[in-house]
Amino acid sequence: MKNVLAFGDSLTWGADAATGGRHAFEDRWPNVLETELSGQARVFAEGLNGRTTIFDDYSIPTERNGSKALPMLLATHEPLDLVIIFLGTNDMRSHICGNAAGSAMGIARLINIVKSFNYKPGHGTPKVLVVSPPLVADGQDALFNDVMLGAGELSKEYAGKYAQICEREAVSFFDAGMVVSADPNDGVHLDAKNTRALGLGLAPIVKEILSLQ
Predict the structure, then answer these.
(1) Which three-class secondary structure state does DSSP give residue 103?
(2) What is the Cα Rg of the chain in Å?
(3) Contact 142/96 with Cβ under 8 angstroms?
(4) The pTM is what?
(5) 59 and 86 in contact (C-beta within 8 Å)?
(6) CATH numbers and ranges of domains, the chain
């Protein structure tokens, strides 16, 4: 049995823009992915609303810096065969980072954490799959649009920057924008259909990485 860590933000947690709540368990992409892996792997979903790659954000009490949370989660879930990193949308906010290359460097740091972590004897170093966020658009909430001001154009740069980092670091890459579109309610999160689509889209890639049938 293989073990996979799905490390992300609200798109991994399953935030539902239409209701302000959370998608049903069976609709969230990590759980769809696990179902598609047909009992050959467990997928540990670790999504947190507002999580960034490497940047601090003190607007709520929860620790959002992904580089601070990742080592704890690697230790929590080891041994791991694969870590899927799906972050960057929150970095797009101008008060967080507001720069695609800055987020890409954040991704590079997270990859380095996975590669260099002090795993227990007998636990190998997991492989890494980086997923770039889908395109962002204006939604129906004016305040949220202001928070994400400029993210629409900025989001178009993310896949290319992430792909460069993944090539340099010799890890796998997937562009979520190839299979999903943001919910028009807020222009950022995924509706139930799209979060399912991401799980389905990732399944063949994860099977190949883990040499599953």
Answers:
(1) helix
(2) 16
(3) no
(4) 0.97
(5) no
(6) 2-210 (3.40.50.1110)
What is the Cα–Cα distance from 143 to 137, expressed in whole angstroms?
Answer: 13
Angle between helix 66-77 and 100-116 (nearest 10) = 30
* Rounded (5°) CA angle 165-177-179: 125
Please report which confidence band the pLDDT of residue 5 belongs to, taking 50, 70 and 90 as the band edges.
very high
pLDDT in tens, 28-73: 999 999 999 999 999 999 999 999 999 999 888 899 999 999 999 9
Can you give the length of the chain in residues?
Answer: 213
Q: How far apart are CA 120 and CA 185, in angstroms?
A: 44
The secondary structure of the chain in percent helix, strand, coil, rounded to multiples of 5, reads 45, 15, 40
Largest CA distance in the chain: 52
Cα separation, 46 vs 138, in Å, equals 27
Residue 78 DSSP one-character state:
-
What single-letter amino acid sits at 201?
G
127-132, strands of its sheet edge to edge: 41-47, 2-8, 82-86, 127-132, 172-175
- Which tokens in the block code for residue 41? 């792997």
pLDDT tens, 191-202?
999 999 999 999
Check residue 146 and give its pLDDT: 85
